[in-house]
Amino acid sequence: MTVSLSIIECLTEYANNPLGLDVRRPRLFWRLESNDRSAAQAYYQVLVASSQERLDQGVADQWDSGKVASDQSIHIEYAGDKLISEQTYYWKVRVWDTQGEASAWSQTAYWSMGLLSRADWKAKWIGRKAEKGVDMQPSPYLRKSFQLAKQVKRAFVYATALGLYDLRLNGSRIGALFAPGWTDYETRVQVQAYEITDQLTVGENVFGAILGDGWYAGTVGFLGKNVYGERPFLLLQARIEYLDGTSELIISDSSWQAAKGAILYSDLIKGEAYDARLEPTGWDQAGYQAASSWELPDVRTGYNGLLVATIEPPVRIMQVRKPVSFRRTEEGTFIYDMGQNMVGWTELKVSGAAGDQVTVSHAEMLNPDGSLYLDNLRVAVQQDHYVLKGTGEERYEPHFTFHGFRYVELIGYPGEPDLDTIVGKVVHSEMAETGRLETNDEMVNRLYANITWGQRGNFLSVPTDCPQRDERLGWTGDAQIFARTAAYNMNVSRFFSKYMQDMIDSQLPSGAFTDVAPDAGWIRHKMWNANLNWFAPDNAGWGDAGVIIPWTLYLMYGDIRILENNYQAMADWVSYLRDNTEDLVRPDYANYGDWLSIDADTPKEVLATAYFAYSTQLLAKIAGVLGREQDQTQYESLFASIAQAFRNAFVGSDGRIHGETQAVYVLALQFNLLTEELNKMAIEHLTADISARGDRLSTGFLGVGYLLPALTDHQKLDVAYTLLTQEEFPSWMYSIKHGATTIWERWDGWTEHKGFQTPSMNSFNHYSLGSVGEWMFRYMAGIEADPAAPGFKHAIIRPRPGGKLDRVKASYDSLYGTIEVAWHLSASSKVFRIEVSIPVNTTATIYVPGRVCVIDGVENTSGTWEIEGCQPLGSTEEVSWFRLGAGRYTFESDLLAIKASV
Predict the structure, then answer these.
(1) For this structure, is 892 an active site residue?
(2) Cis bond leading into 280, ω under 30°?
(3) By CB atoms within 10 Å of each CB, which of 151, 402, 508, 703 scores lowest?
């Protein structure tokens, strides 16, 4: 028999050959391929060995799972011998199909463990003493020269910082940008591991590091600088193993050397100043002659937080973009248009005399007179200053800062620049793009592009609220409403797993989750700031992220561990909410409500009670997944009681909900708070409000993500499509009509009548209102996860054609493989055609609008179908549905149900 399955990808903890893990039971993943329809895995066997040689010989000295009867190919927990610090583990897998045929063994994958106990660390924290009288401190340069007399077998280095580090070895950079990432430094800091075997040589070797203030000692949003500490420190430990079986450690300690260099300051919010004349050329390489003039480092006595393995994906330069145009201003400066609002920085190419200074200034928008619009930056300074050394062509890009911008102004540039003078570097956390979506409507396509650019611009270590002004905080409410959209667009499994740890670290003793994570002193700031007048101890829709995000990761990736690890924190949150109610109705003290809604004031007690119910409802489901039956029953009962309390307090017999905003109806409908009869009345009130506003929305951050789903789920698909493609203010398309290339923070960020909104809060790169992307995938394209078989083990394919669209093509890369849906609506023949691709080792249920008349080119003349891999489940005048195995399928239907839309 022909073997039907082949293994094409093996991952450990969602990553390709990760280094320095500290999880004691790593999870293994593999992806399968096959040319056979309905191909599926029936058994698997995993071998794990302590060396490549042993694994090649079939000697699994760490774990042999045996032949396991299972169709699971993701989240397979390692169950072998105890894992040891700094050990590397090699693994491979084979599977059997449902016919009993075995696949070939996979390619070898591996992972390594980091330093698993504090006792394993011998290194010291080192930095450089602050310079007196200097407000913005120069970045410390650190170096360590060491000799190797023997051939190296293998070597790893473990590094982290209180602050940020740029690590070098023998002149070459090691690792990613903005490492170790942003955490609550009072609780934990992440450690990165790198293999350096091939970069070491016999003789002199040199470690070099430049430190940045980062979030630790630099400016954090509007919370000021030195939120966690006064200056940065490095911790580094390298283990070098020799061919003769011996090993040695190179550690950060008092034997290193320190100096200041060319970076006069580099701040996340304030930008960077760099004097190239001060570059210590060759400082990170062997043979550096000026080392004798360097200082001894400052050694920190210790650090009380946890040293943990990195969870989040690394931050990298993900794209390089050239400007589309530039012009000379009357002042003699040069303004470039990058053609896209982006996040990162510009690399400058310049020639001139020593001492010439060029300032590179960044902004998202232009003023009416063509100058950079800087008012919305508040106290942020999106400028980098470069002083030339005067040695021919020079290139410069900043080190420990980033900017949000479309426009770049060169001030003081010597000579005449051109389109090659600058390039833009797009920077964000490295997450594979998993979603693609295209329609026949170019404005809808631009909307989807804007949503993805908003994610690129704000997913940098944490999900920030904006990348340009003096904020850039990890607002939890923004994150939860966008989480499902984010998970369609990119693989955010590691990104949000780390962010959940940030939320747990910030959770208050009361059980309340904070508004931002890491907290960075926000709670203290808002509670003591009389000008803000914001004293709410929690905020509905923000704190609820602590339940919504884990549930989203479970749905999209089948991740049960995220539920297990955060269960107690979620339970504490719901208990906190319950304890702070009156007859299960939440108070109205929230600071934010349906933030930045437009001409609609949603009562905060209505919103807070709705979200209390939703978190409770999700927690009941989570308890069920985890087998906590008693908890499940308890939370189901509590949810029913909250829903009743909601109806008693806020819902009239005519279905009108207190406040009568679009948001109150949307949340009540989507959170299952109404009876069936009240649902019918509520949806009519919702659509009446939309109609009365000229077919326009009014929802803010918390309501907008549920608006189109609520309409679609309650048979108002036509209204959902009308809102999607509405071009008048307020709408998604209004900003696009006026040149937006990202999602704006507010519907009225700029309008034809008023120009720019208040500059105190007016970001043009924000993702919250882009949560409509979830609807575009789940409803418009019809790619939906099944909570009963999460992670798209079983997918639900149910496209909803409508509006002006006659063609939609979308795909999503699940952990099992790519799900593809492409539908086309023929207005002339009233024929609906859909092509679907289902990955190997998964199944799907597809709902096709109207009565299906053709499958894979085969017409139905007998009243029954016999199509390989396709089992009919039923049909009505409105829809036909089938169960599918893996493979490609084509359906055509007569569209009886939606002729009115054509």
Answers:
(1) no
(2) no
(3) 151
